[in-house]
Structures are given as structure tokens and as C-alpha cells.
Design a protein that fits this description.
By secondary structure, the chain is an alpha/beta fold. The protein is built from 18 helices and 25 strands.
Length: 573
């Protein structure tokens, strides 16, 4: 425990003083192989370090910041660092001080990172939140549950989220210390207008010590209320080493990187550190379905594109655009989940490069990148193959991470080639689940972390993802069936297989133009697959999604199969 924390122990919520330890690391590659240490692990100085190292480099947002709507969308790193300073000034005027918690619940935009960096620069703990949660859980809006776990944080929000998340005056009074609205307050007296806070002095930076809590983000929440994941500078630094190192064919300052992950997510919080180190030109996309995506891709011709898997799926039509918006891309990146083979094939074919690559990264907010695998065009040339190539997610970075499969009942490692719960060990694991530390401890086994996913590790150490344990299919894999059917039925825009106890798995799909599938075509597509129920068609917009565009399978099952129970236990979700 640091001396700075111990002097305030009685004033702080327990989750800021009692948490699990984490291991740190300085680099993966040794110096003689060009190992590159991360410039900083602290998000409170990330933009200032970036500006110092590459002051004139551009970062392009798809619209002006919500906290500076009259300002430019395209700024140098120096100008973005200045906006961080301006933000610390109005946060300080709001009353934010060291060790306060500041929830940020507003429209998705790159300025979520600006606000979070400013909060951390004051020495407070930022907690960016999504706002996309679905219906209440146990009678309470999910946003209320998350705010309650943060124990009366300050809140930075906007009118849409005040209205959409049930944040009326009584809720704000009970859940927050003070709330500032970045747009119009609508006459509400319980909310501070951001305009009234501007113009104050920039406070002195007071960064947290490396091993102290630094930020809180939340998981996607596919199975209910998202978990609030807490990291320190030590854990963030160790997690982001994989991206910052000088790997062959990796990113450099000549690249332009188009980035479309949600800006409240752990991936983007850690991403700031690698940007500070490498100094790439960035295109920050806040809405995968916005027309701005096509415009910016054509204007800036990125060489690297990163997005969440279902965002790439939604770009399959854009990949066929005759103006070739992905024509200059040499490297595609997707993080956190397996991506469909058809999607990889479509996007790789959209590049005019001779040998474009796709890097699939299986990651979790709690522990960072678990396994990595590169794909080229020839890797995904087979259509409808079982098991699909996308299920094989690669292996951990040698000398950095370790992986094993264990029996769900006994916790003992299983032999190679057998299905088991995947456990992972590497530096940089999260410190806590805020308000649910017992849940965190259930998943922690010394240096090993239970991912909650079922998989198979082959004799070469490659891991094949089967399913989330809670979404398991008896004797099969929903991930496999969904990928195969998307490949065999190109008119599908989404398909989800819903398992349930004592029922056949239910396929739920959407199509181009919302047209039903021909029954004979469906039967041919499933002829060699396990027995499935008759498929149900819904519109693409009707799939319940999280802030990371994952399908909320539990909510979909409740809607279409009332009373049905999942096959898995959900113990490790």
C-alpha cells in the first residue's frame, strides 16, 4: 500500500484500498532484438507524452468533441493534450479532487479518452460507461447499479443519457455527488451546465502511483450487468506491451490507423499508451454505421484498421464499394472475440495490397490479449469448412503469456485435445471487480485467470475457442455453427444459435433486405450440422446488442424462448 493511499484509508471506499495484486513487466522483446519499452503506463500523462514525442502528428475524430463542439475535429497531438488541460480545469471547478471517482456516461466519442485522461491527471479515478445496457436487471436500471458500485461518483453526462438511463433528480441525488452535462441541461437545477465551469486555472497534475487504482472500465455485459474492471498503471503498462513492441510488419509512424472500438472500453483506455509510444496518425471513428466512416476512409486511406468483430461484419457492404475505402489497408485488427471467416475474407479482398494481413486477437478486459493469430487471404479461402479457421485463435506471446485448459468440475488441467475451461496467466491482470470482489476471487487461481470460455488446446499449443461456458451447446459449438452458416448463406447479415436445456438449439437470423430464407436452401446448408430447431428471422436492428456490438444472447433467449434455461452454469461469467 502506498503512503499516499494509507493516509486517506478511512476516507476511501474499500474497493480502492483492498484489491488483488498484479504482476508488472517492462518489455517482451530484449533490447538486442529491438525491444521497445512503453513510454508511460499512466493515462493521466499519455496525451502529454504523445505531444512531447510527436507534437505535430494528427489525430482525426469523425466529429468535433462533445466537450468542445465549436472546436475542430482534426487536431495535432499537442492540441489534444491542451484539451486535456482545459478539461482538468473544469473538472477541478466541478469539485473533483484526488481519489474521487468520475463516471463518464455520454455519447460515444474520442473525447471520452480526453475526459478520462483529465480525471486521472487530477489523481481521481475515471470510470467511462457505455449507456447501452438493455432493460433493468432485478428491477434497477443497469446504469444505477454501476453508479452505486462506484459509491457516489461525480458524473459527466449528456441530455440523451440523463433521459435514457433513468437519471432523474432523485436518482442523481442518491447515486452521485455532482453531475455536469456537456450539452444543454434543459433547465434542470440538479445538473451543472459545462459552460458555467469553463475558464478556470489548470490544476497541478497529481498522478496515482503505479500500483494504485488508475481507471475503471466495464465488460460488455452480454450475460447481465457488466462487471466493473479496475486497473492500475502497472497492470495497464504490462497489458499494452504486446502492442507497443516492434514486431515484424507491425505498426510504425508511417501508418495511418483507423480505430472503431467503443471509447469507454478497456481496449481504448490501454490504446492511449501505445499511441503515446509509437505516435501514429489516428482516425477515431465513433459510429461504425455513420456515413463519416466511408468519407474518412476514402479521404485518409488508412493502412491499419481496427474494429470489434460485429462492426467489421456490418462493413461487408462497404468493403464492396467501388471507391475501395479499404484499398490501402495492409493490416486489419480485431480484438476480444472470434471474427467470422466470411468477414475476414471479404475485408482482405477489399484491400489492393499484395499481401494484406489480418490479426485476430482474443482478449479480455481483465487480462488483455490472450492469444494472437495472423491470417492471409489463402488462410480463409475455404468456404463453410468445419471447424472454421476463425475458431483457432492462435497462441499466447511466447515468454509472456501461458494458457491451459482445466476441468470445470475439478479445476485440474485436462489433456491436450480435450475441451476445458481456458485459464490464462500473464503480467497485467486487473486488480478488482468493483463491488463484486468475491466474483473476481472466484476467477483467480494464483497467477491463473479463468476466462469463462471453453476451448481446446492442441499439441502445438494453439487454442480453439468453443463457446462461452454459459452459452455452451451439448456436444457442439455455437461459434462453429454460426460461422459455417454465414459462409454457406451469403445473404445472412447475422445469425445466432441459442442453446437451451432440453430443447434443440434455436437459430435466429437476419438477411439482406429482410427477406426470408428459402426452406430448401436452409436445409442444404444444415445437412451435415447437428439437429437445430426451425430458424427464426428478425430484423438486424432487433438483435439486442451491448456497447461492443456483441449479441446479448441471454436477452434474446428470454424474448424468443420464455422460461428456457442456458445449458452452461454461468459460474465464471
Amino acid at each position: 500500500m502506498s503512503s499516499r493511499m494509507s493516509g486517506q484509508r478511512g476516507e476511501l471506499p474499500p474497493f480502492l484500498t483492498a484489491y488483488a495484486p498484479t504482476r508488472g513487466a517492462q518489455r517482451i522483446l530484449p533490447r538486442f532484438l529491438g525491444g521497445r519499452p512503453l513510454a508511460t503506463g499512466r493515462i493521466g500523462e499519455a496525451w502529454h507524452v504523445a505531444a512531447q514525442r510527436n507534437p505535430s502528428q494528427l489525430l482525426i475524430a469523425d466529429r468535433p468533441p462533445d466537450i468542445d463542439p465549436q472546436g475542430p475535429a482534426v487536431r495535432t497531438l499537442t492540441q489534444w493534450a491542451s484539451l486535456v488541460d482545459e478539461t482538468t480545469a473544469w473538472l477541478h471547478a466541478l469539485g473533483v479532487r484526488a481519489w474521487d471517482r468520475v463516471a463518464v456516461l455520454k455519447a460515444n466519442h474520442f473525447d471520452l479518452l480526453v475526459i478520462s485522461s483529465a480525471v486521472a491527471r487530477i489523481g481521481a479515478i475515471p470510470a467511462p460507461l457505455s449507456g447501452t445496457y438493455g432493460p433493468p436487471v432485478d428491477g434497477a436500471p443497469v446504469s444505477h447499479t454501476l453508479l452505486r458500485r462506484l459509491e457516489r461518483p461525480f458524473l459527466v453526462t449528456d441530455r440523451a443519457h440523463l433521459d435514457g438511463c433513468g437519471l432523474d433528480p432523485s436518482a442523481l441525488a442518491a447515486l452521485t455527488r455532482r453531475t455536469v452535462c456537456v450539452d444543454d441541461t434543459g433547465g434542470r437545477l440538479d445538473v451543472v451546465d459545462l459552460a458555467s465551469l469553463r475558464g478556470g486555472a489548470v490544476p497541478t497534475a497529481r498522478l496515482r502511483a503505479p500500483d494504485e487504482p488508475m481507471w475503471v472500465t466495464h465488460t460488455s455485459g452480454t450475460t447481465g450487468v457488466p462487471k466493473l474492471v479496475m486497473h492500475s498503471a502497472t497492470s495497464a503498462h504490462a497489458m499494452d506491451l504486446v502492442e507497443a513492441e516492434r514486431w515484424p510488419l507491425w505498426m510504425g509512424q508511417r501508418d495511418t490507423w483507423a480505430f472503431c472500438d467503443p471509447f469507454w472500453h478497456e481496449r481504448t483506455m490501454a490504446f492511449q499508451l501505445s499511441l503515446a509510444t509509437i505516435g501514429l496518425r489516428m482516425i477515431m471513428l465513433s459510429d461504425a454505421r455513420s456515413p463519416a466512416v466511408r468519407r474518412l476512409l476514402i479521404e485518409y486511406r488508412p493502412t491499419v484498421v481496427e474494429a470489434m468483430p460485429n462492426m467489421f461484419l456490418s462493413w461487408e457492404d462497404l468493403a464492396r464499394d467501388p471507391d475501395r475505402p479499404f484499398g490501402n489497408v495492409r493490416l486489419f485488427l480485431n480484438s476480444f472475440d472470434a471474427i467470422h471467416t466470411r468477414t475476414m475474407r471479404t475485408l482482405l479482398d477489399a484491400s489492393d495490397r499484395r499481401l494484406p494481413l489480418w490479426i485476430q486477437a482474443w482478449s479480455q478486459s481483465e487480462c488483455g490479449p490472450i492469444a494472437l493469430r495472423p491470417y492471409a487471404r489463402r488462410s480463409v479461402r475455404h468456404r463453410g469448412k468445419r471447424p472454421p479457421v476463425n475458431q483457432s485463435l492462435g497462441r499466447p506471446v511466447p515468454g509472456y503469456g501461458k494458457i491451459r485448459a482445466v476441468d470445470p468440475e475439478t479445476g485440474r488441467p485436462v489433456r491436450r485435445g480435450r475441451v476445458g475451461l481456458i485459464e490464462f496467466s500473464q503480467p497485467g491482470r486487473c486488480l478488482a471487480y468493483v463491488g463484486e470482489q468475491d466474483r473476481h476471487e472466484l476467477k483467480r487461481n494464483g497467477d491463473w485467470w479463468n476466462t469463462g470460455d471453453l476451448g481446446v488446446i492442441n499439441r502445438f499449443g494453439m487454442v480453439r475457442l468453443v463457446d462461452r461456458e454459459v452459452d455452451r451447446i451439448a456436444g457442439g459449438s455455437a461459434i462453429e455453427l454460426e460461422d459455417v452458416l454465414l459462409d454457406r448463406l451469403p445473404q445472412l447479415t447475422e445469425i445466432v444459435i441459442l442453446p437451451a436445456v432440453r430443447r434443440r438449439p434455436l437459430p435466429v437470423y437476419s438477411t439482406v433486405g429482410d427477406r426470408p430464407l428459402d426452406p430448401g436452401e436452409w436445409q442444404r446448408a444444415v445437412r451435415d450440422l447437428p439437429d437445430l430447431a426451425e430458424p427464426v428471422r428478425i430484423a438486424w436492428e432487433e438483435f439486442p446488442r451491448t456497447g461492443t456490438w456483441k449479441i446479448a444472447r441471454g436477452r434474446l433467449r428470454e424474448r424468443l424462448m420464455p422460461g428456457a434455461r442456458p445449458v452452461g452454469t454461468g459460474r465464471w461469467t
